[in-house]
Design brief:
Strands 1, 2, 3, 4, 5, 6, 7, 8, 9, 10, 11 and 12 form a 12-stranded mixed β-sheet that branches. This protein has one domain: Class I glutamine amidotransferase (GATase) domain (Rossmann fold). It is of the alpha/beta class. 31% of the residues lie in helices and 25% in strands. The two termini are 25 Å apart. Helix 1 packs parallel to helix 3. The protein has 10 helices and 12 strands. This is Homoserine O-acetyltransferase. Belongs to the MetA family. The record marks 111 as: Important for acyl-CoA specificity.
């Protein structure tokens, strides 16, 4: 899927080097097709890294995608320049009269806070309420998934006795669901979180379904029964080295952090970790874009 992104977006050159099909506005206008409009609310601190991770995945299927990056106006980002935000991001007040075919809401390293204590929670809930009528399907990641489960469906989050950190095996509850079609019955995915949601709360909620669960009995893929909200509690979008970088970061801060589970060969941080989840990540994003965005969105929003 060629992705239409600004010419000067820094990650553009990396994507081109990786042979990801990117195009700019000039070329996009010459194609007589209806592109998908995808909004990305990037809540992660290192925004350029997350941009690259997500754009890789959105550029891997046959349709054209227009990307709009959204930030929270009520939050001051510390790890990215104001120039980058002003140039490549917009705010909710500037797009709340638009409709989007799909949306991604990322995670954020704020699990220790109650939702209502997050400084942009009111703005985020305004966005999530807006999606009910202005977005065909929303994909929520990690903390974003927990926030959506709390706001839309009243599902709580609970602190873990020890951080879930590493690569875990996951099982499907129903491999015939289109979102997970083509998945192996057991597959890997990265996790890096201090909180969780409970399987029983998901199963007892009539509005959502549990599609995948981890070897530690933690819900992983949850979907609303109308398919408008998809919640992924882990980080399928992570690169092979992301957990290693988080591990080194926490060690340098003197935090009590163990070696990521099932990640480094021989549990040796000196060895290069392999990416054992890439194919399922691409498949999930492709299935989402095809079955829940492209096949469902109106050709013309009214």
């Amino acid at each position: 899927m060629p992705i239409n992104i600004p010419k000067k977006l820094p990650v553009r050159e990396v994507l081109k080097q990786e042979k990801i099909f990117v195009m700019d506005e000039d070329r996009a206008r010459t194609q007589d097709i209806r592109p998908l409009n995808i909004l990305i609310l990037n809540l992660m601190p290192e925004k350029e890294r997350t941009e690259l991770q997500l754009l890789r995945l959105l550029g891997n299927t046959p349709l054209q995608v227009n990307i709009t990056f959204l930030r929270m106006a009520t939050h001051q980002s510390k790890n990215v320049s104001e120039y980058h935000l002003d140039t490549f991001y917009t705010t909710f007040e500037k797009i709340n009269d638009r409709r989007f075919d799909g949306m991604i809401i990322t995670g954020a390293p704020i699990e220790h806070l109650e939702f209502e204590k997050v400084n942009y929670w009111e703005e985020l809930t305004e966005v999530m309420e807006w999606t009910k009528h202005n977005v065909t399907s929303v994909l929520h990641i990690c903390w974003g998934a927990q926030a959506a489960l709390h706001y839309h469906y009243g599902v709580g989050k609970y602190e873990l006795p020890k951080k879930s950190f590493g690569i875990y095996k996951h099982h499907l509850t129903d491999p015939t669901i289109k979102l997970v079609q083509g998945f192996d019955e057991v597959f890997n995915a990265p996790h890096s979180r201090h909180t969780t949601v409970l399987a029983e709360e998901i199963k007892n909620n009539e509005s959502i379904s549990l599609l995948s669960i981890s070897e530690e009995n933690a819900p992983f893929i949850i979907m609303s029964n109308d398919a408008r909200n998809i919640m992924i509690t882990g980080h399928l979008e992570y690169d092979a080295t992301t957990l290693a970088e988080e591990y080194e970061r926490d060690l340098s801060k003197g935090l009590d952090i163990g070696v990521p589970k099932n990640y480094f060969p021989n549990d040796n941080p000196g060895e290069q970790p392999p990416n054992t989840w890439r194919s399922h990540t691409h498949l999930l994003f492709s299935n989402w874009l095809n079955y829940y965005v492209y096949q469902q969105t109106p050709y013309e929003w009214k």
